[in-house]
Amino acid sequence: NTCIKSGACVEACPEKDILGIMNGAGTLINASNCVGHGACFHACPVEAISLVIGTEKRGVELPHVNENYESNVEGIYIAGELGGMGLIKNCVEQGQMAVENIAEKVPSSHDAEYDLVIVGAGPAGIAASLTAKKLGLKFITLEQDSLGGTVYNFPRQKIVMTAPMELPLYGKVKLYDTSKDQLLEIWRDALSKNDIQVQERTKVESIQPQGGGFLVQTNREVTYSAYCILLAIGRRGSPRKLGIPGEGLPNVAYRLLEPERIYGKRVVVVGGGDSAVEAALLLCENNQVKLSYRREAFSRIKPKNRARLEEAVAEDRLEVIFNSNLTKIEKDKVWMKIGDAPARA
User: Fold this and answer.
1) What is the CATH number of the domain that holds 52?
2) Range of 149's domain?
C-alpha cells in the first residue's frame, strides 16, 4: 500500500460521494456510484490508485492514459468505456477532447495514409469522428458491429441518457431521458449532415508500429496506415457465458434488443448488474420472470434500478432468487441450484 494519505483523490473526485477519508486516508466508500472519471488516479501524487471496470473486488484493471488521453504507447489514445468513462455524456466529451489533443500532435506532413484511425463508433468514437472532421484531420472510423457500438445492442426501450450533451458540428442535444432509438437517430443525423461514413462490420485484428505511425489490419483483409490511433471501443462485445450444458440452445439470448416481442413466456434472467435488472424489469410486464443472482444481495446496481426492482418485487411482478446458480438449460426448463440444496428444475 503506497498511499501517503494526501487526500488528493477525495478532493479530485467530481462525484463527491465515491471516496471519503477514513483513518486519515482516502477510501472507497460508494463504489457502485463510480462512473469512471479517473480524476482520482491522476490526482494521486504517488499513483497508489488502480482504475478497474467491474467492482472493487471483481474488477478488470483499466489501461493508464495521461491527461491528453494518450496511452503508454506513444501515438495510441484511449477514450470512452475502455478508459473507464461509462456515462454516454462523458464518453462524448472524452472522445472530443482526445481528438483535440491528437490534432495538436499530428504534423502537416507524414508518410501514413491517414492522420487518425478511430476504432469504435459508440459515443466516444462518434464524437471523435465529428471533432476530427471539424479540425480538418484525414481520418477513418472503423466499427466491428453497427453504428452506436455498445448502445446499439441495448434494448430498444432502454433509457440511455439523463443529461444534455454537446456534439461537435451538431450543437447541444437537449433531450432528457432519451431512448436508445432517439439517440441513434441523432447520431445518424449528425454524421450524415457532416458527410461522415463509418466503416461498419469492420473489426480491427491488429495494430502494429510502422515508421512513425501504425499499420491497422482488419477482418476484411484491408490495411490502413495512420499517424495516430484512437481506441474508442467498449468492453461488452463478448458476453461472459455460464459454462453449462444447453447455453447454446435457441431459447438462450445474451442480448435483449426487442423485449416487446417477448410475450407470455416464462423467463429466467441471470445476473446481478444493471443490465440484468433492467432486462428483468422490461420483461416482467408481459412475462413470468425470475431473476437469478449467485450472491446474497445486489451491491452494484444504480439507485433508480434498485428502487424499480424493489417495487416490482413488492407488487409480485417478478421474483428474485439470491444465492442461485443455473446448472443446466433445456428446451422447456432450466436447472437451478439454490444455496446448498440439490439442483432442481
Assistant:
1) 3.30.70.20
2) 63-231
